[in-house]
Each structure stands twice: as structure tokens, then as C-alpha cells.
Here is the input.
Amino acid sequence: MGRRKAGFRKNHFFSHQKRHQKDNAVPPQQKDERKPYNDIIRENEKFIEYYRKQGVCKPEEFDQFIATLKTDLPSTFRITGSKAVSKKMLGVVEGELIKECVQQSGDEKPPNMFPLPWYPDKLAWQLELTRKDIRSNEAYYKLHNFLISETEHGTISRQETVSMIPPLVLDVQPHHKILDMCAAPGSKTAQLLELLHQNEEPIPTGYVLANDVDNKRCYMLVHQAKRLNSPCVAVINHDSAMLPNMFETLPDGGTQQVQFDRILCDVPCSGDGTLRKNPDIWMKWTPANALNLHGIQYRILRRAAELLTMEGRIVYSTCSLNPVENEAVIHRMLVEANGALELVDVSRSLPGLKYTPGMTSWQVSSRNLEFYKTFDEVDEKWTTTIRPQMYPPKEEDKSKYHLERCIRILPHQQNTGAFFVAVLQKVGAFTSKEKKTEGENLETQNVESNKREFDERLPQNQRKRRRKDIYREDPYVFFKEDEPIWTDIKEFYHISDKFDAQCLLTRCHEGKKKNIYLTSAGIKDLVVTNQSTIKFINTGVKAFVRCDNKNMKCAFRIANDGLESIYPYIGTCRKVNIPNEDLIVLLTNNNPQKSPQISELSQSIQDQVEHLSAGSCVLIYTEKAENSKDAPMQIHISGWRGTTSLRCYTTQHSTVHLLRLLGGDISKYDISKFKKKIEDDEEIPESGGTLNPAKDKNEQNE
Here is the structure.
């Protein structure tokens, strides 16, 4: 294309038409303004006719089903954290906040607040509160602020009720390699990480690989994962239907393709099960949505089956009511697998959950609501959008596929959104490579031969792209055996030889290393082996932060984010047991320039830090459980021993959380329009010195 002439103006010859249109534009007061959700008409005749015809529920329940869909969705949340901390938090929720809400209801009937009957240990709650309720009642407003603050800290996860089900039925164990194929925005990924850490090991041997096709949504995913401070998660950015093979290193130095133990496929869908949360779908809904999505949903599920190990488990889920997106995809997959996959009955694993068994017969409709019982009846003009694979099994084959083992959750059953869940297990060879391996013992192949074999199974366009793409993300530079800065850190904190320092990484090859991150051995191997072909967005939890201080022998302090993972390896010389009263004093002091003097603290603290050199340390608070059979609650906090003072590093949300657990006063942090807020312009920074948002942002990008 030649160079434009001087004075050239793009679309110059049409500019007069634009000016004319602008002059004759409709006045602002006459324009149709966007309607708020309250004004959206929750009606769609096609929707009602379609699902009445499909028979998604019993005829006598259909009116209640539709009526519930037209109401707002209740709020729900989960309590996370270690067993002892989550139990203490449950006591705060149940014994203080909920109780106060009930007492302040007065003569009015208190709102329905209850633990979900099928979620373990009463750690998930449903609140039937509206925004109007929250604005009009101080106790509800206090509960609302509690949820926001604890969500930021990571102790509470606000998640829709039905969204909690897929990770539970996946049956995650700490040694499992888990793949979340369509992970954003990340609530289920966070739940998978919680289940991975259920035995409270510092660093489990398993890991979670969270993938999403949308680059921007991947960063939402990173934010969710960071709240849980796990070294066992990595976020990648790929098309799930064409997710490249990944490789791992064997003990003998060879390599093999990664086969995942558990895979979650929460696939893109029409979302008509979320009508209570997204009422604008009422106006947009059409039967064509499901027809257009069926293909990509099947391709994602098929790719999951290829990446699954033998005896591994896939959970396929959607927030759709449509059988074309649900049972039709499962049936198509089972037919294709030819016995290699089977549906698992997980109904007993969630006692108390009300659901409807999967549909075994349905009809397929055109966008004009013309129903066809078989593909042979389909009008020729619809044969490109309606495909034979969308139809149910024949009557004589229904018992073969057990589609009734799928789980359908309808909104009127337990006042939730609508959802579909199916659990598949691999019981036989699915890919050509697996079928080949069944009858013979193959020698271990090297990376190049494995990649070559996989390239032949990929679509042509994907093969070309994998060879040409060079990802420009910041590198993941893992420590070497003789890493210079590690010697000082190890000596200062007396870190055990059992700690694998080669799992530490930075994000730059040269220059001053500001932050040091920690990953599990499995994640490290995954990154190192696949960094040239897989687009890793984020991995690692911050373990050490540079803190240049003339009084400190080591240039790095311990970060709260990764403290739980490295705590067992830190020597006792940098650990300080702190009583309840002293910890409350440190937490309530919000001026880092005037940290509490050691001489003002208890004699126990003075004795412990007398010979402790200046620098970073670990503060340990232990509280006995009410039940002698339960383990005590132990909290670890990154602290700083100054020349004459002692302080702790906590964000404001963490400070409020800890004070709440310790029974301290949090009134100065309570933001309520019902009573005057105590003015306090100073905030508690995450690190020493005054709070600097720009600096914090730069640290996150390192």
C-alpha cells in the first residue's frame, strides 16, 4: 500500500453525510434509555413453550419452575482456610452475625439464612437477602461488609450454590494432577485448590492447571487463585478444544505426555440456567443458541477425554437447561468413546441435594420452534444447524448409556440457579495411542518423537500455529543449585536442606531480583518442560520480598503469601510465639513509623527476641480448641524485629480478619452508614513504610 498524500483525510467524502446525520439526530430526551434490571420484563413465550415441550420437569411443577426463574437469586458463600480457622470462622458467622440478623428482625419474619445441607461441615451458607434488606438493616449491612472484607482476605468465597457442585463430585485428592479447561472467572478453580490442600500439607504433590481461551479473563483467574496463596497452581491461555499436549520429566530423565487424573469441563453455554442472576437473557433467548454451541462443547469434552489418564474422572457441567447442550453432548461423547468412557452415579456423594435425573429423551427444535423427533424429519433448510448427533439414543440403546446418571438441578427444588452436571470415568483406551499401548509394551519415547506424534493428530491450522508462535510473556527463571542470593537467605532463616530451592523463581534474567516466588515441584517441571509451547500467564506464590535495610543481614524478608508453604522448613531461631494480648497490640497499631516497643510487650516476647537479630521473623499464635479432640488453631504471620520494636506485616483486610479471630476491636474498620465511622486517614500497609499503591502494583507485575 502506497504512502498517503499530504492532507489526506480518511472518509473525507462521507464526512458531510455524518454531519447531516448528527444535525438531524434524535434529541437525547427522546432516545431510548437502557432499562435497569428492575424494569426488564421476565417473559419469553418461546422459552416457556420450548421447555414445556421438552418436559424438563414434571407437568405439575412447571408453573412453579417458571415462577421461580422470574425471582432474584439468593446470595451464597463458602468459608475457606485451614480446618481450625474455618471452624473458628463458622463460629463467628453462626454465633454472631447470623444471630444478630435474626435478633434485629424484630416483629418481621427474619430472612432465611441456613447452611447448605449437602455441603460438608456447614461451610457453605445461603442468604435470602435483597439489596433493599441490606440497605435498611444495620445487622444485614454488617454481614454484607463482613463478606466483602473476608472475600478480599481469602477466607470467604462468594460463589453461586450450584457452582459449588462440580468440584465436589470430581473427588479431588492431594496427589492429583487437575486440569480446569474453561476456568475463568475462577470460583471453581479456587475450590479445586482448597480440595487439593484438604490434608493441610504445606506443598501437595498434585497441582491445578487452570486454562481459559480469553486472555483478559485469565487475569481475573489469577486474582482468584492468588487469594488462596497456593504454590500448586498455574494459569495458561489456550483454546480448550485444541489444548496442546504437555510433557513431564520421568525419574530416569526421560519424558512422557502429561495425563491428568481429574478434569473439569465447565464449558461455554447459553446460560439460560442463570436467568435469576442475568434477567437480560429473557429477551435474548432463542433455541438457536444451543444449536450453535453444541459443537464446541463436544470438542472441548473430547479433548478432555484425550488428556485424561486411565481410571481418571471428568466432570462436564453447564449452567444451561437445554438437553442439546447437556445430555446430547454426553450421549455423543459416549457413542464416540465406544465403551472407553462411562457415566458415574454420584448421587450418594451429595446427601441432601435435590435434583432431577438426566433426560433420556428429548426433541430438537429449529430457531422457529419447529420440533423434530428424529433427524429424518428435519426440514432441509435446517440440516446445517440441526445435526444427527444432537438426538437422544434409540429406545433399545437407552440402558446402554445410563443418561439418567446425569444430575439436573432446577431452580424451584432448593431455590437455586439451574445447572447440569455429568461425571465421566475413563475405563478403556480412547486415543489411538492408548489403543496401541493396550496390547504391547512401548519403550519410553523422547520429547521430540512424542510431539511429532501429537502434531499428526492436531488440526492443520493448529500445527502451523504451534510452530510459528513465540510467546512474549516474562520468563520464569528458576533458581540454580549455586544461586548466589539463596545462600544468604538459607543461612539467615536456617532453612532446612529438605527444602528444594530450585522450586523458587524470579521473573527476570538480569537485574536486581525484587520478588522471589515458590512453586511445587510438579508445577516447576511443567513450566520448565513446556515454556516454549504453552502460554503461561501466571504461577508461583510470593515467598520472599527484597527489603534493603542497613540493619538486616539478609536482603529479603518473608512474604505472608507464601509463608504457610515455607514455614515447616524455617529454623526455630526466627520464630516467635506471641500471646493473644501482644498480637492484638501489634495489629491495632496502624502507624509503621511508631511500631510498639519491645519493652512495652509481655515478658515472654522480650525473652524470645532478646538475642534475635534485626530483620524478618515469623510470629506464631496458638489457640487451643474448645473440643480437646480437635487440633489447636495456629496462625503464622510475617513480622519484623526492629532495633527496639516489633511489628507485623498485614494488609488491612488481613488485620480485620485476624482481629476478628482473636476477639479484638474492629470498630475502627467498620464502615456503616448507621453509625458515624471513626475517622482514620492512615492505612495499614502490606510492607514497612507508608502505603504506596503504585509500588504495590509494580511489585505484582514483577
The longest strand covers residues 308-318. DSSP finds 24 helices and 27 strands in the chain. Confidence is low (pLDDT under 50) at residues 1-5, 441-457, 463-471, 676-702. Residues 16 and 22 are 10 Å apart (CA to CA).
